[in-house]
Design brief:
The protein is an alpha/beta fold and 493 residues long. It folds into 2 domains: 5-129 and 191-257 and 448-488, Rossmann fold (3-Layer(aba) Sandwich), CATH 3.40.50.1820; 134-183 and 260-386 and 392-428, no CATH class. Helix content is 40%, strand content 14%. It has a 9-stranded mixed β-sheet with strand order 1-2-3-5-4-6-7-10-11. A two-stranded antiparallel sheet has the order 8-9. α6 packs across α7 and α10 (294-310) packs across α11. The longest helix is centred in the middle third of the chain and has 22 residues, at 161-182. The chain is globular, with a radius of gyration of 24 Å.
């Protein structure tokens, strides 16, 4: 959004007044931000300030050196340097908080109030922060070959699919282990407990900068999806350092650390029911897959899924001189999965593709990326090192049991879920991590309640972070409050 010159000058003057930055030049990339052990803010990206905070690689052994964590701040219109900062904790793992804050900059004041500053960050291993691990070490051909071997679609698409996915998964860990050994010796030091400690380092550094007591500093945070795991971990490790914490779209932290994501699809099929009822209510002018009743919509969708399972559709693209391809059962399942999370934008996409398939046109489905295949390693590496010593998904029997449970839980996505979320990739990871980076005990505040009660939020129908996860976490933190919104979809900003 373009801003008037006078407004930009006024904003810049407010930033200078709040942080004393008038004499520093504006930067447009994090590569130009100098890491510092102190919280040093540099004007960046026109309306933000940026910092790279040096943190210990290992908080239990500081002699190993440091890495840097990228933070970005948006000053509230009525905020000062002493004002609390609300930290947006991104989802993922592998999600960028820097991108999150940039995307939602215009909503921050409306959501939380202009008396606060708004901060977000890239956790270790993500984008602008240190310890970026490339498991395939720049070998794009090897990465593509692995994806072809492993990303075979739904686990029941053939009699060999489950076995192929299980056994090929070990290839990924071998490449990651080799990359750590050869290129980045501490590349596995990206665990969520380490990220929680980085957040404590940040709030202490921020308090020091504001002339306040570091030992009394508390985290004010809003976490979403995997960000709720970071928040719950922080609250479990440092219960007396919780200021104000909102965890929205709660992921089951225990299942996350066990690499046993059994409950995530708990409300997937309920979401399909909502799709059918909302499509019917919207009418034929607003839902392209409209039918005379929700049951009619669901039945027609089931028939399309069945037909595609038995008969993949070849898409020649001869007339457009495009590359030949095909539309498959796995593609349709992935489409449903990927568009459940944000119904406002995703449901119309589902309706459009189903309408086209019903009329014999599979081109749209064939052209939509199905999300299979690994293009970035940050999220997968974080998950796999987090489940170190706790992984409940290592043997083929465990994988088969997990897949069968997912299929029984969700008719529509249970068979595609395992290959999209890829928990099986962690089965052969063997990181050597210090105890300080490993969660052994249950995530809870039962032993010592948090210094301020946590607010948990959830939609009543959530296809990715189901309501039962929020209810479970609430029971683990005495005094916490669960706020329900009558709605469907994964809670987002």
């Amino acid at each position: 959004m373009k801003r008037l010159t006078t407004a930009l000058i006024l904003f810049t003057s407010l930033v200078c007044k709040a942080d004393g930055l008038c004499n520093r030049g504006m930067v447009q990339k994090f590569d130009d931000v100098i890491p510092s052990a102190n919280l040093t803010w540099t004007p960046c990206f026109d309306e933000f300030t940026c910092s790279k905070l040096e943190v210990p690689l290992d908080y239990s052994n500081r002699s190993l050196g440091t890495t840097s964590v990228a933070f970005m701040k948006l000053a509230g219109k009525n905020a000062t340097i002493q004002s609390p900062s609300i930290v947006l904790v991104p989802g993922g793992p592998g999600g960028s908080g820097i991108q999150l804050l940039e995307e939602y900059r215009s909503l921050m004041g409306q959501m939380f109030g202009e008396q606060y500053n708004f901060v977000s960050f890239d956790p270790r291993g993500v984008n602008n922060s240190g310890l970026n691990l490339d498991c395939f070490r720049g070998n794009a051909e090897a990465r593509l070959a692995f994806n072809r071997l492993h990303s075979t679609g739904a686990t029941n698409v053939s009699s060999e699919s489950l076995q192929e996915q299980y056994y090929s998964a070990s290839i990924y860990s071998e490449w990651c282990n080799e990359a750590v050994e050869k290129d980045l010796p501490h590349g596995y030091y990206v665990t969520t407990p380490a990220v929680a400690q980085d957040l404590l380092t940040f709030v202490e550094a921020e308090a020091t900068l504001a002339g306040q007591s570091a030992s009394d500093a508390k985290l004010w945070a809003y976490g979403i999806s995997y960000g709720t795991v970071i928040g719950a971990t922080f609250a479990s490790l440092f219960p007396d350092r919780v200021g104000r914490m909102v965890l929205d779209g709660v992921f089951d932290a225990e299942q996350y650390y066990d690499n046993n994501w059994r409950d995530v699809a708990d409300q997937m099929d309920e979401t399909i029911e909502k799709f059918s009822s909302l499509c019917h209510s919207a009418g034929p002018d607003r839902c392209s897959f409209w039918g005379p009743s929700p049951a009619n919509i669901t039945a027609r969708m089931d028939q399309i899924i069945l037909e595609l399972q038995n008969h993949p559709v070849a898409v020649s693209k001869a007339q457009s001189q495009g590359l030949p391809t095909k539309a498959t059962y796995s593609d349709l399942k992935a489409l449903l999965f990927n568009n459940f999370y944000s119904p406002r934008s995703g449901f119309p996409v589902i309706a459009k593709v189903l309408h086209q398939l019903e009329n014999g046109n599979a081109s749209a489905l064939a052209d939509i990326p199905n999300g299979l295949g690994i293009t970035s390693d940050a999220g997968f590496v974080t998950r796999c090192v987090d489940s170190y010593r706790r992984n409940k998904l290592t043997t083929i029997e465990e994988f088969k049991s997990y897949v069968e449970y997912m299929v029984s839980t969700s008719k529509y996505t249970g068979d595609i879920y395992p290959i999209i979320v890829e928990t099986i990739l962690c089965r052969s990871f063997r990181p050597q991590l210090p105890d300080s980076m490993v969660i052994r005990n249950p995530i809870s505040g039962v032993q010592k309640p948090t210094s301020f009660p946590i607010l948990l939020a959830s939609n009543t129908v959530d296809p990715g972070t189901p309501l039962k996860s929020a209810q479970k976490l609430s029971s683990q933190f005495p005094g916490s409050v669960l706020l329900l919104q009558e709605g469907v979809g994964v809670s987002q900003i």
